[in-house]
Design a protein that fits this description.
By secondary structure, the chain is α/β, with parallel strands linked by helices. It is 37% helix and 23% strand. The strands form 2 sheets. Strands 2-1-3-4-11-10-9-6-7 form a 9-stranded mixed beta sheet, with helices on both faces. Strands 5-8 form a two-stranded antiparallel ribbon. The two termini are 12 Å apart.
């Protein structure tokens, strides 16, 4: 199978990850897709927010069995050229027969391109852990959540959320921070599954992000104290250390690879049908 990864970030944002020794968001996604497919999928990455970045020569948008859309540092209501180019790409993909999965920014691009509206979340920044996401009745019946706990935690980082749904979109899960933690809809010939959180993130990557964005987290009071922040950061960076044996049980949703990537694994199964 052929998978297209659409990178949501501008080049400067991706370069910042590289400069501090972290994988970019598209690299994180690529590694997860490869792992879940046992390296059987062919992966192509495009960067519509980079200047003069296009599909490789000889490759067409018709060549892919599935599309995934990464996170991003952008805010969709700014409508900069880097954002507009992604919305236009999504509209083009909708016209084809595609199965699309979006995480965080990916959800926001897909919702906007389908006629919905994204806003700055009145509840503020939801960062590191989206807590107690509750799968609703529609979610329980949807293959996105096949085998998932009804209430779970997930890695996240977003300032924005969905204000208005696209036509016929169905909410699958919510929590106290965001009424739309996941949804699905059909647009033209395409089927879209999208989540506001990040099933592709792993503990070590999120720990690195916490190190990079410590001031932001503390300024936004995402943690009650510096010591509480340090406790989670150190755990995520070193969760395999035997001293964290008991804490691993508490954070099973986040550190158990099968648990936190299950939505993507279910989407990959859907591609095979």
């Amino acid at each position: 199978m052929n998978i297209l990864i659409v990178d949501g970030n501008e080049k400067e944002a991706s370069d910042r990850y590289i400069e501090i020794g972290m994988d970019t968001q598209y690299e994180v996604y690529s590694k997860v897709i490869k792992s879940l497919s046992n390296n059987k999928f062919n992966i192509t990455i495009v960067h519509p927010a980079f200047k003069n970045q296009y599909l490789p020569n000889g490759v067409s948008l018709d060549d892919f069995d599935g599309i995934v859309w990464t996170g991003s540092l952008l805010n969709i209501y700014d409508m900069s050229p880097s954002i507009v180019s992604q919305i236009e790409l999504a509209k083009t993909l909708f016209k084809m027969k595609n199965k699309i999965f979006g995480s965080c920014w990916g959800l926001q691009v897909l919702v906007t391109a389908a006629g919905g509206k994204i806003r700055k979340n009145p509840n503020g920044l939801e960062a590191v852990i989206a807590k107690k996401i509750n799968i609703n009745e529609a979610g329980n019946a949807h293959n996105l959540y096949k085998g998932k706990k009804k209430i779970f935690d997930a890695f996240c980082w977003h300032y924005d959320d969905t204000e208005t749904l696209p036509q016929d979109a169905v909410i699958l899960s919510s929590n106290h921070m965001s009424a739309v933690q996941s949804l699905y809809f059909n647009k033209n010939n395409s089927n879209i599954w999208a989540v506001q959180y990040h099933p592709e993130f792993d503990p070590i990557w999120i720990g690195g992000l916490m190190k990079q964005r410590e001031a932001i987290l503390l300024n936004h009071k995402a943690y009650e104290s510096k010591s509480a922040f340090d406790e989670d950061k150190d755990f995520f960076l070193n969760f395999e250390d035997p001293k964290y044996k008991n804490k691993i049980k508490e954070f099973d949703d986040l550190v158990n690879v099968k648990s936190h990537t299950l939505e993507l694994a279910n989407w990959i199964e859907e591609l095979k049908n």
